[in-house]
Specification:
Elements (H helix, E strand, L loop, with lengths): L1 H31 L9 H9 L4 H6 L10 H9 L6 H26 L5 H13 L2 H7 L5 H20 L8 H7 L1 H20 L3 H17 L4 H36 L8 H10 L5 H24 L8 H23 L13 H17 L4 H26 L9 H11 L7 E5 L4 H10 L5 E4 L25 H10 L5 E6 L2 H4 L4 H9 L2 E6 L3 E5 L10
Parallel strand pairs: 1-2, 1-3
Antiparallel strand pairs: 3-5, 4-5
Helix pairs in contact: 1-5, 1-6, 2-19, 5-6, 5-7, 5-8, 5-16, 6-16, 8-10, 8-11, 10-11, 10-12, 11-15, 13-14, 14-15, 14-16, 15-16, 16-17, 18-19
């Protein structure tokens, strides 16, 4: 009978693996669809510019003014050997996102009650594949998909070690020799935590979360010496892998504190909306999905208490709750006590924990009903349908709703309206706006007379004020506009691309000068760009 159960268990594992592989293919196709529909936005312009610099500049100069680690930009620099078009650059994030699915599925398999492992695993992998949040970040040339992969890897490793705690009580040398799976789990734990810290500076919050969680778990272990030795091995891997960025991170945190940051502490309403929306991407949909996620996590705790064979399973729901909400709460508290660093996209990777909880919800609902499998089946179909419809509407059918500025369209329009053989003059305020324009200038093989204010990115001077933390994009002052006016004396027509003057040009130095010197508006290209001209000698505007 035990042999039959073992064979059945292995068959379910093979079937789950096959389903997850199919979901990965499906997820890739969903993410690849419309991957290049949207223009680069401002932050993608940063990524494109950073990854185009020399290795020496990237690792020695960029950390002195950029607020994030440079590993993602380094990987992107290598990736650019395959091409620099939008599709190729965004494909890296897509692959990071798809690679997260096996770890999400494996964590769901570990968490789920044994008889429901197949159901929970397939649903968790599908919900991640169709997550509006995960699809959106997989279309960005930013590090957030890498952050999701790092968190999924770490969450799986910690969950695996929790349910196999007795195997950690053996000496480290014996683990190396006889337990390759546990060795791999320890290595993945170390690499996952290092990658979390490398992917984004907020990733350090996750690292502390997992470190303190494992520490308190270790306190309750009977065999402490060998368990600590094995966990220290994982910690050393993380420390060695992250060491090159350690000193840069300290200086970046200091720089943010000295120069301020553009974010604001979250209000109670905003925090509540972000919490409800974390499970699926939108706060209104979260009103339905968020309670299901909590129901699933509570059911995991309930079922683990009934499992007398492995009481460590009761810690996994606690880990899911901490992973889901502690980074969000921590950044909110730090935003009030120290410096505003609360930004939803920096902790959207926490959605993985709520996805796993949500995948258990149909099982939890079925457990308390008479017709269990019928209830589970109906719940699964409903969740498959809701996730698919929501993601299709938000990402596939209406992709333009997620972006305001279209730099690709702007560059094409500037060249289209230019006289043959001329170099259109573009005033970029602040200077960071020039980065996506420069990218499309190269991609579309055009040439502009680009005038970033106060100068090319990065503009680093001791007397500058930096309202966005990044010490390459200074606030605009009167002296900068005086220099701009001198350089534009012989220019009759310009394009003004002005982004967020309320942040970088609060006194509207650039705006007031341009309106005075170039009062004639020839064309508007919302939301940032206007084509302007000086008055003619007769004092009129040409049409």
């Amino acid at each position: 009978m035990k042999l039959d159960r073992h064979i059945f268990y292995e068959n379910r594992a093979r079937l789950a693996t096959a389903f997850v592989f199919i979901v990965m293919i499906f997820a890739f196709l969903v993410r690849f669809h419309n991957i290049s529909t949207l223009s680069f936005w401002q932050d993608e312009g940063y990524s494109a510019w950073f990854s185009d610099q020399s290795w020496h500049y990237l690792w020695t100069k960029v950390p002195t003014f950029e607020t994030q680690p440079v590993l993602y930009y380094s990987i992107l620099k290598l990736w650019r050997n395959l091409g620099s078009d939008e599709t190729t650059l965004r494909l890296l994030s897509t692959l990071f996102s798809v690679a997260s699915i096996p770890f999400v599925a494996a964590t769901a398999w570990i968490c789920a009650p044994r008889k429901d492992q197949l159901t929970v695993t397939v649903l968790a992998s599908f919900l991640f594949a169709m997550s509006e949040t995960q699809i959106r970040v997989s279309h960005d040339v930013r590090s957030y998909s890498m952050m999701s992969l790092s968190l999924a890897t770490t969450l799986f490793s910690v969950s695996y070690l929790l349910i196999n705690g007795e195997r950690l009580t053996r000496p480290l040398i014996e683990v190396f020799r006889r337990d390759k799976t546990l060795t791999l789990a320890l290595a993945l734990l170390g690499l996952g935590m290092a990658m979390l810290a490398w992917s984004h500076n907020i990733g350090i919050v996750y690292v502390f979360l997992f470190t303190f969680f494992l520490f308190f778990w270790w306190i309750g272990c009977e065999e402490k010496i060998h368990t600590l030795t094995n966990l220290t091995f994982a910690g050393l891997i993380a420390l060695i892998a992250y060491f090159p960025a350690l000193f840069n991170s300290l200086s970046q945190v200091q720089g943010i504190g000295e120069h301020g940051f553009w974010m604001t502490p979250p209000s109670a309403v905003r925090f509540a909306k972000d919490a409800f929306g974390l499970a699926i991407g939108k706060s209104w949909a979260g009103l339905f999905i968020f309670p299901l996620s909590l129901l699933g996590i509570c059911f995991l705790f309930y079922s683990s208490l009934k499992n007398q064979e492995n009481r460590a399973r009761s810690l996994i729901p606690v880990l899911l709750v901490l992973t889901a909400f502690l980074p969000m709460i921590t950044t909110a508290i730090l935003s009030y006590l120290w410096q505003p660093i609360y930004l939803r996209r920096t902790f959207e990777a926490s959605q993985i924990a709520l996805i796993i909880g949500c995948s258990v919800a149909p099982v939890a609902i079925g457990h308390f009903t008479r017709r269990r499998w019928k209830t589970v089946t109906v719940s699964l179909i409903a969740m498959f349908g809701v996730a698919s419809a929501f993601s299709y509407h938000s990402v596939v059918a209406n992709p333009d709703e997620r972006r305001a500025a279209n730099f690709r369209k702007l560059v094409a329009r500037v060249m289209e309206s230019a006289e043959p053989g001329s170099k259109p003059t573009i005033v970029a305020s602040p200077n960071s706006v020039a980065l996506p324009i420069m990218y499309y200038e190269e991609i579309q093989d055009t040439e502009f007379d680009l005038r970033p204010v106060p100068g090319p990115f990065p503009a680093t001077k001791a007397q500058y004020v930096y309202p966005a933390g990044n010490t390459g994009v200074p606030a605009i002052n009167a002296s900068m506009v005086e220099e701009l006016s001198v350089s534009l004396q012989n220019v009759d027509t310009i394009w003004l691309v002005e982004r967020q003057p309320w942040r970088f040009d609060q006194d509207r130095h650039v705006g007031r000068y341009i309106e005075s010197a170039f009062p004639c508006i020839l064309e508007k290209l919302p939301p940032y760009a206007t084509k302007r001209q000086r008055r003619t000698d007769s004092g009129k505007c040409e049409q």
